[in-house]
Structure formats: C-alpha cells, structure tokens
Amino acid sequence: MIADERRRMAGLVESLTAEQLRTPSLCGAWTVKEVVGHLVAAVAAAKSSALPILIRSGFRLHRANAMLATRMAARPAGELAAMLRAHAESPFRPPIVGYPGQLTDLQVHGQDIRRPLGLPHELRPERLRASLDFLVGGRAIGFVPRRRPLGLRWEATDLGWTWGDGPLVRGTGEAVMLALTGRRPALDDLSGDGVAELRRRVSG
C-alpha cells in the first residue's frame, strides 16, 4: 500500500503546474512542493545529509524535518517524482509509528496538496481505515496529540468506522482523518455535538 501511494504521489507531482506547486498547502507554512519535498526526504534523504541538518537544528526533529523538506523541494519537480518512484519499495520502517505512520503520512499529505488545489482525494477505503485506526490507537506520535481523540465518538460515515465514546464527531473518513491531524479546513465538513469541543482542541 505504501509503495503504491508513493507511485500515485509521483504521478500527481508530474501533473502539477509550476503555479500549483507554489500553492500554499494545508500543512503549516509549506507550499505544495515543500510537502512533496518532505515525502521524498522521508524515504530518499541520505543519512550523511540528514545528520548535519539535525545538528544545525539543535536536534529539534520538527525543525530539522522542515529544513530537510525545504532543501529537497529545491530540486525540479520531475526529479522529486522520479525519486518517489525509485524508492517506492523502500523497506524502511520508522520507529514507534512503523508502517502505519508512513501510510498515514502519505495519505494526509496527499490531502494537504489536493484540497487547496481542488483535486479529488482518490483515497482507498481500506488504506483510509488503516490510518484512522492508527491515529486513535495511541502510537501516532507526531501526528495526533494523545488527548485530542479522547472522550469523543468518531464516525466515518462512508466507511462504517467508529471509535470512542462521548459527544459525536461525524463525517467522511477523509474529513475525520484530517481533523484528527489538526487540519482546520476539514472541521467545516464535520457534524455532531462533539465538533465544538474538537475545534477547541485543534485551536489550543
């Protein structure tokens, strides 16, 4: 699933214009191309180049990650797509988050790109379900603050997926996934008496 998502991302990158690549994404201050740079760096950056950046960042992982993504995004889009394809089958398994984290990273960042560009999400139901299970499973370090999903009942209306107890947060699996990971535009696509509390958690 991860390999296929990387190849699909490569195809998406190749289809985008220079203007689309410069478009702000849903992921913080990153442009679409910088999001792609992050996805490439996660699988293709050499350890020899990552270590100096980690040192310059003061060993702050999020800052190092942003620096590495920006450096990678300086490459031509076609080169980034080729790197995603070349490393699609990489067996690298990150600590703690493992393969579910990699799959979720690709799906969430895919939407960080597609939503601002008005492109259909084309998410696969079984992969989306795997990411939802991961995001509420307590091991999604760096994806979801531990308390965000707690005390709410989550329902993905198109997947028959539910989790938790409490005030209801309901929407498509795509919107639920993005809301769990703090993407504020997705909150407008949700309904239920738990959405107000979720907004407070995302904003806080």
Automatic annotation (TrEMBL):
SUPFAM superfamilies: DinB/YfiT-like putative metalloenzymes. Residues 3-89 form the Mycothiol-dependent maleylpyruvate isomerase metal-binding domain. InterPro entries: DinB/YfiT-like, Maleyloyr_isom, MDMPI_metal-binding. It comes from the Bacteria. Pfam families: MDMPI_N. This is Mycothiol-dependent maleylpyruvate isomerase metal-binding domain-containing protein.
